[in-house]
Amino acid sequence: MSRRVEALQQLAVKYSRHMLNLDDKTIRKFLIARLAALTKKPKAIIEELRVHNGNAIADVVAVHRYAHCYEIKGDADSIHRILRQCKFYNLAFKRITLVTTQRHINNAIKLAPAHWGIMVASDKNGSVAIRYVRRASNNTLYDVKVALLTLWKSELLDVALPFSTGKLDKLNRMQLSDLIVLKLDHETLCESIGNKLVCRSSQTLKFLNM
After folding, report:
1. 8 FRET partner, CA 20 to 30 A, in 62, 70, 89, 102?
2. Is 51 helix (H, G, I), strand (E, B) or coil?
3. pLDDT tens, 78-97?
4. 120 shares its domain with 26
């Protein structure tokens, strides 16, 4: 073996040791750090948020005025899963962004709905750089009634109490959602969902820090 070939092999081994595995866990860590460093920081960043009565679990949700869903697809993940997941995310979130890798980017552009944002994560000197391919746009499929079902019953009760004198505790989550949709305008509803998710996140952090 020539010295040149041996040197190249050693360099390749050295480089591979410093390459990050672009899986969900790694991308998620850097995505959350990126969101937390925004000039207009989210009010809360929530992981593994169940939506549509548990039919889907959003990887990361950043709550600004509204909730923005980030779905992560690492190198080893199946990008085609978004074909099923998008049915639920489209109903539950006003903004949705797919975060994937260069390996999946061509399929991501083909498969992701046009209103979804797309970000690509890449290894950069032992760190992960995340950049936009396109930004999320308004989701016309958003259904505020479905979005309300992201909330727990106790949270729905909190939203409904100010405008109801009935015995709300006897109503189930679906009935509470029906009542709330009749009483509040669209913008107020969207903000109420975001505010309740922020409160939930704050309470969870307090519990973990006890």
Report:
1. 102
2. strand
3. 999 999 999 999 999 999 99
4. yes
